[in-house]
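Appendix B. One record, verbatim.
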Amino acid sequence: MQAMDEYHELFYREFLNAKSEYEHLLRLFQDVNWYNFEVSCRAWKYPWHQSSADSGLTLCGVRVETRERRGHYNEKVTWPVYYNGPVYLAPPVPAAILMSDIKDALELVLYYKDLCSAPYDWAPGGDAWQTLMRSGWSARAYEERRLSNSTAVAHDDRCEARGGVGHVTCGGLERAAEAQPQATPADVL
């Protein structure tokens, strides 16, 4: 039980890190959207208001570093400047790249969320373990073997009714069975 708790704590810590990264990316995405809005406003025509060409525009990225110090994890966040200058020189930012990162971060959050309960679900008696036992390949193999054994027993019963000589089915292969078993030799060695 202690090992399962340790795995749960590990996966939960990774879940929190992934969630933090996802939230940082969402905040950056809001800034990128506002930045792209300001860049696209510089070409608007009447009746919409055009951005003043000389107004300043700044877009900062976000960089998060996680460090362990004295047994504790600390985050150091810095905001490197992507662009700082007038609106009329500002390059547009391709938001599709950031959307791809957000999608990957969300998948990671969901992955670790599922892993948080995995030590308990996949342990013998857990929900996932029971589902696997009912539907996994080992359950199918057991069922096939059980069915093949029941047909082999029925075949052997019919053979005994004809005088005791029949076939023994063993995993799909058949071999002739003798009517009388032979005694084991006493001096094998």
